[in-house]
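Justification of computing resources. Each target in the renewal requires a structure prediction run like the one illustrated here; the chain below, 218 residues long, is used simply to show the kind of job we budget for.
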Amino acid sequence: MSAPLPFPLAEAPDDEAREAGRLLFAAPTEFLKGVVAMDGLPPDDRLEVCFAGRSNVGKSSLINALTGRKGLARASNTPGRTQEINFFTTTGGPYLVDLPGYGFANAPVKVVEKWQRLLKAYLAGRASLRRAFVLIDARHGVKAVDEEIMALLDRAAVTFQVVLTKADKIKLEDRERVLTQVRGALAKHPAAFPELVVTSSEKGDGIETLRAIISTLE
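Resulting structure tokens:
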């Protein structure tokens, strides 16, 4: 009998978790505010989950797919367009937090440095943050800049779970190669949650699973 894979793909949710996820995201999700400094954060009076990833990895598209609202988070083909921490409220559930993209950004160096500092301060200092979802492009796997954010999450003791995006853009045999690379990278990070979620915002793959995961966090 072969040994189980490290960091297996998350299984499809059971009926109870699937329904919890459906109900959470069937209710209205609203944009609350964009934050450009730590003193602008909303009260940490509920759980929150955040979405982190390289510029143009598909964070906004994933949030739109989760909530079923195409225009909720502003998707852009311009890397680095999101320069603030954007908070969204779910009805009776956690905050959804869209973090500024890290890595390459089409913005002045000083602007990039400012929002990278904000990103790091948020991840290290937000007590209500229950899980970070680190988005990895399924076509490219883990890059050096992803390793940096994962190391930061390790130091902050924030559990993070890798979500592969744009799975519809890659052939199945290539996906297996990328999954092997991602699993090898995650083995070095103690804060990594031991399951992967593979998604496609366009096709809807993995969205139901991710909804269920978010809705059942405590």
